[in-house]
Specification:
Chain lengths: ~350, ~350, ~625, ~625
Amino acid sequence: MPTTTSTPASTPSPKVNRIGLPATDYRGAKTTLCAGCGHNAISERIIDACFEMGIDPHRFVKLSGIGCSSKAPTYFLGRSFGFNSVHGRMPSIATGAVLANRTLQALGVSGDGDTASIGLGQFIHLMRRNLPLIYIIEDNGVYGLTKGQFSATADLGAKQKSGVINELPALDTCALAVLSGATFVARSFSGDKKQLTAILKAALAHRGTVMIDVISPCVTFNDHEGSTKSYKYVLEHEEALQEVSFVPAFDDIAVDYDPGTTLDVTMHDGSHLRLRKLAQDFDPSNGQQALDVLTAAHQSGEVLTGVFYLDTTKPDFVQQLGLVGEPLAHLPEAVVRPPRAVLDEVMASLL
Amino acid sequence: MPTTTSTPASTPSPKVNRIGLPATDYRGAKTTLCAGCGHNAISERIIDACFEMGIDPHRFVKLSGIGCSSKAPTYFLGRSFGFNSVHGRMPSIATGAVLANRTLQALGVSGDGDTASIGLGQFIHLMRRNLPLIYIIEDNGVYGLTKGQFSATADLGAKQKSGVINELPALDTCALAVLSGATFVARSFSGDKKQLTAILKAALAHRGTVMIDVISPCVTFNDHEGSTKSYKYVLEHEEALQEVSFVPAFDDIAVDYDPGTTLDVTMHDGSHLRLRKLAQDFDPSNGQQALDVLTAAHQSGEVLTGVFYLDTTKPDFVQQLGLVGEPLAHLPEAVVRPPRAVLDEVMASLL
Amino acid sequence: MSTSTLDRDLAPAPAPASLLNDFSIQVATVNGSGSQSSNLVLLHTLFQMGIPISGKNLFPSNIAGLPTWYTIRASRRGYIGRKKEIDFLIALNPDTCRDDVQGLEAGASVIYDEPLKLSALRSDLTYYPVPFDKLVAPVCPVAKLRKLVRNMIYVGVAAHLTCMEMPEVERALRRQFKTKPKAADLNWAAIQAGYSFAREQFPQPDRCQLQRMDGTRGQIVIEGNAAGALGCLFAGVTVVGWYPITPSSSLCEYLIEYLKRYRRTPGGEATFACVQAEDELAACGMVLGAGWMGARAVTSTSGPGISLMSEFVGLGYYAEIPAVIFDIQRVGPSTGLPTRTAQGDLSFVATLSHGDTRHLVLLPGTVQECFDCGVAAFDLAERFQTPVFVLSDLDLGMNHWMSPPFTYPEKPMDRGKVLTAEDLRRLKGDWGRYRDVDGDGIGYRTLPGTDHPAAAFFTRGSGHNADAKYSEKGADYIANMDRLRRKWEGAREHLPAPLLEHDSSSGVGVIAYGSTHHGMVEALDQMREETDLDCAYLRVRAWPFARSVAEFVRRCQRVYVVDQNRDGQMYHLLLADLGPELGARLRSVRQYSGLPVDARSLSDAIRAQEAAARPLK
Amino acid sequence: MSTSTLDRDLAPAPAPASLLNDFSIQVATVNGSGSQSSNLVLLHTLFQMGIPISGKNLFPSNIAGLPTWYTIRASRRGYIGRKKEIDFLIALNPDTCRDDVQGLEAGASVIYDEPLKLSALRSDLTYYPVPFDKLVAPVCPVAKLRKLVRNMIYVGVAAHLTCMEMPEVERALRRQFKTKPKAADLNWAAIQAGYSFAREQFPQPDRCQLQRMDGTRGQIVIEGNAAGALGCLFAGVTVVGWYPITPSSSLCEYLIEYLKRYRRTPGGEATFACVQAEDELAACGMVLGAGWMGARAVTSTSGPGISLMSEFVGLGYYAEIPAVIFDIQRVGPSTGLPTRTAQGDLSFVATLSHGDTRHLVLLPGTVQECFDCGVAAFDLAERFQTPVFVLSDLDLGMNHWMSPPFTYPEKPMDRGKVLTAEDLRRLKGDWGRYRDVDGDGIGYRTLPGTDHPAAAFFTRGSGHNADAKYSEKGADYIANMDRLRRKWEGAREHLPAPLLEHDSSSGVGVIAYGSTHHGMVEALDQMREETDLDCAYLRVRAWPFARSVAEFVRRCQRVYVVDQNRDGQMYHLLLADLGPELGARLRSVRQYSGLPVDARSLSDAIRAQEAAARPLK
Ligand SMILES: Cc1ncc(C[n+]2csc(CCOP(=O)(O)OP(=O)(O)O)c2C)c(N)n1
Ligand SMILES: Cc1ncc(C[n+]2csc(CCOP(=O)(O)OP(=O)(O)O)c2C)c(N)n1
Ligand code: SF4
Ligand code: SF4
Ligand SMILES: [Mg+2]
Ligand SMILES: [Mg+2]
């Protein structure tokens, strides 16, 4: 079965991309994260995906909370605006930003502590609104920046470096996202270059909330024996739901695929997400089934990756609100300040 | 199939209950809620259940957030301590209170706004800890006390009195509770005296987090045509998953039941929760299945009631923390202030 | 039915001049009983008769069944603050009627529901027993409507007793029921029934009398929250993030109404986005996100919401993001008295959030200023790149105020220092977000989406240098903090200026702010007229203070600072700002019962302190 | 290997007296490189030699790879504040070494990694180039361990140059690696390698010299957060709700360690509950819930967490619930500089939350007081039934301080006014939660579970009367608020009293608080010794202030109030409290670079202001 991806793995990247920018224009400041941190690999994948998709950096915004993960946006797409806000509250900042300028592509980066502990309410409400945004959780099961305490995605029974055992069940952010209304829900692994890049590209083509939980080992505090978010554990327990590939709309290649084994989803921009079935028969348009496989994986201790849920039909929040096409932020005075007659009318009604 | 319940419906309440208190000792201050408010009916059911179970009022505590619903604890069990805290944060207050005195029975009362909007994060984290507590959401789909704005449990397409349509999907608090780790999850209706009383009694017999979402119409702001939380709508769309009855441990009656159609669950205190199957074959020990029926009901617009999930084996938070049996709050100085030798030991290690 | 059947000639003769167009009517009912329509009919009738009025609703934190008092004040001298004494009581609430009656001054009048049998309570009042149920039955055959219509009876009774012009009553009523002519007819019948009954039963006119005058021409009646909402509308707000809370909700609810009506493109698209957030933290975050993006964004809340916004406001201050936050104050601390008024958030808001912060705080004192501050706040937020607070309160925000019509904003919108792609080309990309190019502490910003390779910068609440790069250097931190302080100092003369409401050479001054103004004006007259104490009066309208505040204090020997809070928050802000030397002239006057401040309490309090300071003539 | 192979006789001769036991060593590395063990070996060696020391870690808000500086100060006079000048630099960070060297005063010494080639930078320093990689290789054959062991080389080099006693170095090292003898041996070999190398290469002794003295006998070395945790342990805390945040996390982490170790029943059951909450709101809520239930509960946080706790703290104040909240302050506003120190939350915390609030704030200045305040805070919280804040900071909380051992709390726990079932029977159930029976503003409370029909009451953050019934009455509100204020006023003399650290009749005074104390003590000596300016020094240890603060100010003409924040927060609290007359004597001195305040900057600042006030002799 031929599948195609546009990850650098299969085709060497050209000097410049389709909008004429070199890959270096997608890089950011030098990382200050630990060498080997999963978050750095995710930054690389974001750089790859944006470069290859020909994203215009100045039409891209990066938002984050607080944590090692939330620092990451400084280290990619340096030519894009970034906002490193406060702990757990990126979703609301992003909501305001996206509504104020619907024409930009927004990427939110969060950590598992940032999202599943302090930020849980905002996270779910963002999903519920289907705000057009890519939301990435760089998920290491611990609070990296505050030195290794368990987060709410730490698995039951996982062991801390100090030997302490986690006695609480993990919150599954993918299941929560499906349940709450996100329209594109996936899980990947920072070390899975091919899958993560393909998912990120598809995310860039989606209109609505994309929630990607990326398992991203913390080499300093959570990469030891007994951790369920270590490189070793994930490599041994990763189970891909599908083989994910992405054909961008501008790559005008007709590629054969077998509809019996591969599902082709046409994205909003005309590109194609191709999901080749692996173990099980799985329909990503069925939220119910998504919850099923997630619950099952949870019980078996598997790290299930892939695209769990995808709905390309649901209106996003900007559409729901019926916003004008131009950015609200840039509407001129003549449009946003009603004329004198309106004030007169209102005053007259109060006489 | 004979089933028995100890609700007043089937057996007239005696003058005093098994601990010798009259029903009036379970009443509270005169309600200041609107006449006909569902919340008042829930208060009545709580009074019934506590009276019939012979709960000792002084060993019972009531906690709430802010809202019409959160005012309700003033109107039942006036002889119990109550704490009307701040909006959406009852779970953390309850957590501290329960840990400080594990020997009291705690009941948390919240609203759908209180829980599913501002309080969502705390709600889920309480479920995750399986704190021994009965958590009741008096769910009317609106913010009653602030005059009728939609809450996050308002159904997609529900109509406000002013005609505004809700465009966001409802959060299903039962599904969230199941997903997060609560060990007893149910939904009922303020108007369903028999079911609600039986569930409340079972709740009093459970050890762990009990989450009961009670649909409770707001007669002032959400009882009109177009509402999906009106008396009319719920009466027309309620679908009971099971016929629920409860046999308390102290009611030493052996009652026959057909295990083919009725599931008997032995609760922590030796009492029995009897669930007689109605439409479908349903196993409340299976969280997966709970999510399935909830999702299905959601899609069909049904108000599905009953006990969705029940796990009588999981240790609660107090057990997990390995607390002493006596209330932490009352441990004497000799127990909580280590002796001088301990300070000497620590000081010696720092020399 | 027309009003012509009611004969003006039969109306009682005018009462003693003292209470002519100068008294207060209080309607004591149960909330949820629908009396608000009747009260508004009364209010508008007086207003239409040219009599200056104000209407204040004292309601419980509850939806139905608890005591509520609506007080209408008529004041021929134009006082619109609360009057302490009730001259005319309409007692309909069985739970409170005894207390209500006992609380009256001798000589007051009482309309009451006959079965309540109140006339035995005191002998120094004038009683008008009215059999409401008997009167309403024939007027309103549908029994379940009677509860609502019943309240109109007292409108008719009061109209007769106080000599309202019935055509104006009818006009007020029909205005009230504009969209429901049937209901209007029904209610009009009830009014007439009350009127006729009173005319027969109480031929003697009451001492509270009304007479047409020319005190309201061209004026409007509006709530401060509606005024604030209009301010936002005309400020060109585009993003609204809010969470319901009394007494703030109506600001956003009005705003949404206005936006829906006046801010759609011809194609019906919205030029605004309103989001009911999941809580106040989120509402504030949305506003900051939108402000960062370059939109004019607003939220409105009350005390508990302010507390919850603390962390985000600190971010806005330190990352320098425009935001407008209305705080419609209610009585704190904690949940406090959600339906009572106070000025208790002032000092908390002024330096909200951990670390050294100083915000811009506007203090509207009238509904017109709620409008003006609404407009100005956005200009200031964008000019100073910082959160701007508008501190209103329940009294100002939710009560009915008479006001001159608002004036259309003449100044074009000030979008502050924003560099476009063109600017950046001109500068050859050499710019830094937090550089103090103009020496006013205000940097230039670019907006996301600006098409220039050097446009982007990284916004953060952590340490940064003048070029918006992450920095932990002490020197960068100090430079940044000092610049922020400079920026704030520089705002003093750009905020709504203090108003010298009344000048005097007595050496005694008062400083008040916010809704206190209305009681203050009247209290000043009282002191001048009753005891010859002529205080100069400066009304402060913003923090940080303009230099003229110090000048005012310098010209006085003693300055009474009036606060509606326990701890004298404005007094302390002034003391801190003026320093000990001038600050020694300040005296604190505090009122914090939760009721709108009244002139009598104010003048009593000031006179008492002044008497201690020096014997009055 | 024993130390006997190292011959003390070969050690260089003592240096000029001026730097004998009186200098600072700064180790500049990259964080995550494991240098902290080496630094602690140095610190403890000096301490064991009887030389007063302090150790300060200046680290980035990041986990690995960024510049970090650890500074050890030896002070024969016992000064343990930060010293501004670095006398001895160990430069290992290629990214900062040039700046580090340029920042030195003339005459300083530099150990550096030879490849960095620093000696060309300046000619007025003494350089000790050390080939770290070459030296470590033979000592540590396992390549991947070298990164860690490498840092021990500089211990050996410095030991030789400054004449440390090698047996004490070894003792300090083995203490450090108590549980890992193999690692100890390896590291010891590295130290010796450094020592031998230095002895050969640098026979000349450095001017920074150490010599055994008797300045640390019986003392301990501890971080303030560990001390605070011990305070909680001995206060009998039972419920801990917390959320990680720098620089506060270690307090709860230490506390959890101590509780696990010392607070289990013989059967292994926990007499405590620690919960890592989902955020600071929840942490604070848990503390209030537990406090309401009658438990001693604590949380610890830093600025952002304080902001988030605002709403709950207002509830605690108004509903009168005991709670202990540590704020280990870092540099704000917003995220600010999470790993730098400040006193910037003081005024925010003092009146935290909307509405009129006033809290009890303890201000420990030493690690011992972190312990003592830890104990006292719980007594005060239960006595006054209110949240009590303990304001520490990063400097005090996370740095290493020498201190006398802590003293076991002699006073039994004060659980405050709690009525038991028996009490209620005696009172025949006639009590009211908020009645002011004793005239001190403090009511009696009952605890949930109390077995008496009249025991239960309803706790709420909304209006209530003296019997804890819901009330919206103005009179109830005022009575309650006035009582709360009375209660707060009454606490003045029950909080840790101001300490007159130094008296003088010069008429010039200083007031400082918190970690500023250590720089202050030294600055006073500097001023006295260098310019004959002998300031009296009052150290304030709590808010509200005891009356002795006013007495102190009254005895002075000018009082310098030292704050580690931009806006002079303590200055303003004092001005507000003392009033304008006495307040006029106050002068504000502010230091806010994020570094622990040093004596030189303080004495310079005070002298400059004092010179302007009157010429110094
Ligand atoms: C309000 C608030 N509380 C606490 C902190 C401290 N803090 C910084 S990062 C962090 C946790 C980060 O964990 P996560 O989101 O998982 O990111 P990671 O570092 O693991 O990538 C915490 C608790 C903070 N900055 N703000
Ligand atoms: C922090 C805060 N925000 C807002 C409010 C205002 N408020 C009071 S009750 C309420 C909503 C209550 O809705 P719900 O929980 O559904 O209770 P109901 O009244 O419908 O029973 C709100 C928003 C508040 N008290 N505190
Ligand atoms: S501490 Fe962990 S999460 Fe943080 S940068 Fe290092 S490896 Fe990454
Ligand atoms: S407003 Fe609605 S929720 Fe509130 S008391 Fe009335 S009926 Fe109940
Ligand atoms: Mg993490
Ligand atoms: Mg509700």
